[in-house]
Amino acid sequence: MIEEKGILFVLSGPSGVGKGTVRKALFDKDTALKYSISMTTRAKREGETEGIDYFYKSKEEFERMIEEKKLLEYAQYVGNYYGTPKEYVEETLESGKDVFLEIEVQGALQVKENFPQGVFIFLFPPSLEELANRIINRGTETEDIVNNRLTEAKKEIEMMDAYDYVVVNDQIDTAVSKIQSIVRSEHCKRERVAKQYKKVLEAELG
Ligand SMILES: Nc1ncnc2c1ncn2[C@@H]1O[C@H](COP(=O)(O)OP(=O)(O)OP(=O)(O)O)[C@@H](O)[C@H]1O
Ligand SMILES: Nc1nc2c(ncn2[C@@H]2O[C@H](COP(=O)(O)O)[C@@H](O)[C@H]2O)c(=O)[nH]1
Q: Mutate which of 66, 82, 136 to test ligand 2's pocket (most atoms within 8 Å of Cβ)?
């Protein structure tokens, strides 16, 4: 009997492209996916909730997690740490459920190195101008931070070839449908591989 593990989906892309918006709309439709809540040292924004949006940590607490190797990946991004708790991801995948990460590019590339069987999706803006408008209009960042995030965005976009899929976030619904198709297609692929593997095993065992 082949144990069915869950699939790790990683959504990333530049700040302001709409990762959070698209992920929330996807989760309204797909209840089978499990979202991995990240840890961060950045201050909580108005309207955010501990344990829903992030686990908010001090720099010392975060660095202890790094030392204790409790993070699947982490990155320093525009002056703060962000990271994915390892235990939740591993246990959820082991139990056969899919896990969904929404993280920036340095972290996604670390996951790809250590977990190449993951599925990596890059969310792309309709244009750099629209990206800037979205992050400015969100109104959560100071002008300096917006500029730093946009500088990072250009470097992040250069890395998009490392991803399995690129989805343009022009209309939210269209981006969500495309990600749903990716999820379905990855399940079909893995089912096919599992069937072939089963056939080979049966032939070998007689
Ligand atoms: N397809 C879209 N069309 C228009 N506006 C959008 C679209 N997707 C997201 N937005 C808006 O763009 C802003 C940024 O979206 P969001 O916060 O989801 O981005 P993000 O990639 O998660 O950002 P960050 O990486 O900084 O957390 C929000 O105000 C959101 O409402
Ligand atoms: N490498 C990681 N990046 C993460 C994680 N959780 C979120 N993020 C990304 O950080 C930036 C900034 O987020 P914000 O909430 O301050 O706007 C954004 O790209 C997030 O996707 C994580 O665990 N690891």
A: 82
Cβ-in-10-Å burial (0-12, 13-18, 19+) of 70 comes to middle
Please count the structural domains in the chain. 1
| Separation of CA 56 and ligand 2 centre (Å) | 12
pLDDT tens digits along 129-150: 999 999 999 999 999 999 999 9
Distance 137 CA to ligand 1 centre (A): 9
Instruction: Pick the residue whose CA is nearest to atom 1 on ligand 2.
Output: 107
**80-101 pLDDT tens trace:** 999 999 999 999 999 999 999 9
Q: The domain spanning residue 167 has which CATH number?
A: 3.40.50.300
Q: Which atom of ligand 1 has the smallest separation from the CA of 13?
A: 21
> Is there a domain that residue 89 lies in?
no
ipTM more than 0.95?
A: yes
Q: Does this model's pTM top 0.90?
A: yes
Q: Is residue 80 part of a domain?
A: no
State the Cα–Cα distance between residues 120 and 10, nearest whole angstrom.
5
Q: Is residue 32 part of a domain?
A: yes
